[in-house]
Amino acid sequence: MSSHHQAIQDKLAMGITWSVAMLLMSTFLWLFSDIVIHGISGVSWEFLTARPLNAGREGGIAPILVSTALILMVCMAIALPIGLGTAILLSELTHQFGWMSNLIRRSLDVLAGIPSIVFGLFGNAFFCITLGLGFSIVSGGLTLACMVLPILIRSTEEGFRALPADYRLSAAALGLSQASTLISLLIPAAMPAMLAGFILGLGRAIAETAALIFTSGYVDRMPESLWDSGRALSIHIYDLSMNVPGGNANAYATALVLITLLFIINAGAQAIGHRWSSKRVLVA
Amino acid sequence: MNQPNTIPALKPSDSKRTPRPHPSSEPFIFTENLNVRYGSQQALGGVSLSIKQGKITALVGPSGSGKTSFLTCLNRLTDLVPHCQVSGSIQFGKIDVLSPDTNVLQLRRRIGMIFQKPNPFPFSIRKNLVFPLREHGIKDTATIDARIQESLTRVGLWKEVYDRLDSSALALSGGQQQRLCIARALSLSPEVLLMDEPCSALDPISSGVVEDLIASLRGPYTIVMVTHNLAQARRMADHVALFWLQHGNGQIIESQPTREFFHHPQHKLTKEYIDGVRG
Known about the structure:
CATH class of chain A: Mainly Alpha
Largest sheet of chain A: 2 strands, antiparallel
Strand content of chain A: under 5%
CATH superfamily of chain A: MetI-like
Structural class of chain B: alpha/beta
Strand order of the largest sheet of chain A: 1-2
Helix content of chain B: 25-40%
Radius of gyration of chain B: 19 Å
Radius of gyration of chain A: 23 Å
CATH class of the domain at 27-117 and 191-274 in chain B: Alpha Beta
Distance between the termini of chain A: 59 Å
Oligomer: heterodimer
CATH architecture of chain A: Orthogonal Bundle
Number of strands of chain B: 10
Strand content of chain B: 25-35%
Shape of chain B: globular
Order of helices and strands of chain B: EEEHEEHEHHHHEHEHEEHH
Number of helices of chain A: 11
Largest sheet of chain B: 6 strands, mixed
């Protein structure tokens, strides 16, 4: 093949790669700029701190922010310990629990693929009705926990697996027990991966709608306890844009707040991860 | 506490911890008919070897002949390998190493190990040393500090790092990292050091430094070292054992004092291996 031909092929390949990337970027930019353009005028300190009025057409989103935060807290308080424990079982103790870890891993893959509305219905049937928790922040948080567990566990497990086998061998060769190796060496070393999993999970949870509609409900009052129903940000957006004529302006403003939160969470995760890898000393 | 398998724990009060040399000719570690299988794959078949106290024993032979498998049996690191079965007997002093009653954590405290690739933990230099000491029950800060200085001095690293003990161990050069790993093992006052090609991942200058260090540990410590470098075995070892893959599993072909091994090999394969014809 002549070098002329090769040059054309190279240019073509380059062009296709670029245009695909640009297409992706522009979709995101279009979405993002649409939200910013329509939402920016609605966001103010007042908007963040006031109650919604007139079904959300007017007023702010203070109770919704509080409910979202509480739902996420319940979700992570339950999901983090279970996730960490399962990830440790899957990555460090497989040799003791061979068949069981296979079963767990399969179940997690299936769980990860289940649509969130199914989690919502399950949460309604199990947490709200069977356990009698009703439409409440606790029910919503528990349902979300079931949903983010697969992500949390898989990324934490990958974090443990990515650690050099040397760590385990050299710790064992020094006569260190498996428990202290885990606590003092492996868990701190896998922390960035755990954090990444936590952020991914948080990102999925904060943007969730279907799993929450039937569990935490859509009462837009300020929750007085975890047993109250509370409306999450995504549900507020859904409700304003679908059920409330004239609610679009505040839906846009709420969407902007949600997207900003996602940005902050991601940037925070990156900053922490970067700090960790640049220092290279986990615990001084 | 007088069972034969009870291994004395490390006591903070052991002020002079360097094991006293016992220049006896009695074997210190004695393996008999040692077999190792990984699932259905036999790695080591019927290996018997005696290792003398305070001496350097070199294990040589081609790759895959079972040298590392042999080494990891001695501190029961084979326990960590799924589907690995070890049979036969290993006697270490009065301890039956393979007995299920043996306290492996204490055993590994007494039999330290250095790997081919330096493997410091992703901690500061200080914490690399503090962590194992604390785990073995030494909590007193003054004792710990003394041990850190003592073991780093022993490996010639103290002068190089005393002013940056709190910086990452991973920032050290390869040779320094390997010496830190040796210091980490020494800080637990072991009696035996197992070394799996300790110089082969290092540049020639660092390798020379580490080799000199290992030679200087002869006497107080009993050293069992896997090496692919025959010249190194000849320079350093008191005793050499040649491993060879025969009938599908690793066996010892010949085990001799270094001089005899190189000058009067008994086995045809040994001679060919020394001459570079085989292996």
